[in-house]
């Protein structure tokens, strides 16, 4: 393949711009905020689940307290009714004895149920504290996640601005490079780790860093300026400049 020396030199400009775009892509993909956001998002998901579990436990405990208080109320009501019957003097001796026995049993039952109410109230207080704690932690995690996302977006915006600028510059350079040379460069970039063209600098290929032997340098010197040379070691397009050491 032949190409004007100026077009070959432009490949170095194009390669520099493509390398810059590759670097910007790497920066975008490796922003530290990505890992931070992933971790904070995972933490937030867990805290949300824990908060829901705490709220569910609180709701269940509230229902349990209502039930326990209702049980106490039922016993108090029945004991009051029995006491009222006894105080009325309208029951016989046998019924009176039975009522007195039941009132005593109800008093014991009331005491036991009130102990249950106290125990449930203690668990209710603990559940309320748990909900408050988990809600605060969840909200803090949400805020931290939002901050990390904001920092990522700001960093990405800066990268996007530079990507747009470099992309415009690349389009300008690529537009004047012959199609066949451009196709070869593009293919080599895909197969050679992003570098399709490399400068011959001080007798060394800057693509693979291999120094050419004397015989190879003689062949390069003998090549016409329009001839598109390839590095024998890495196959990249080899660009000759005034610093090639020929």
UniProtKB/TrEMBL annotation:
<protein>
    <submittedName>
        <fullName>Zinc ribbon domain-containing protein</fullName>
    </submittedName>
</protein>
<keyword id="KW-0175">Coiled coil</keyword>
<dbReference type="InterPro" id="IPR003743">
    <property type="entry name" value="Zf-RING_7"/>
</dbReference>
<dbReference type="InterPro" id="IPR052376">
    <property type="entry name" value="Oxidative_Scav/Glycosyltrans"/>
</dbReference>
<feature type="compositionally biased region" description="Basic and acidic residues">
    <location>
        <begin position="135"/>
        <end position="153"/>
    </location>
</feature>
<dbReference type="Pfam" id="PF24481">
    <property type="entry name" value="CT398_CC"/>
</dbReference>
<dbReference type="InterPro" id="IPR056003">
    <property type="entry name" value="CT398_CC_hairpin"/>
</dbReference>
<feature type="domain" description="C4-type zinc ribbon">
    <location>
        <begin position="204"/>
        <end position="238"/>
    </location>
</feature>
<dbReference type="Pfam" id="PF02591">
    <property type="entry name" value="Zn_ribbon_9"/>
</dbReference>
<feature type="coiled-coil region">
    <location>
        <begin position="51"/>
        <end position="78"/>
    </location>
</feature>
<feature type="domain" description="CT398-like coiled coil hairpin">
    <location>
        <begin position="14"/>
        <end position="193"/>
    </location>
</feature>
<feature type="region of interest" description="Disordered">
    <location>
        <begin position="129"/>
        <end position="153"/>
    </location>
</feature>
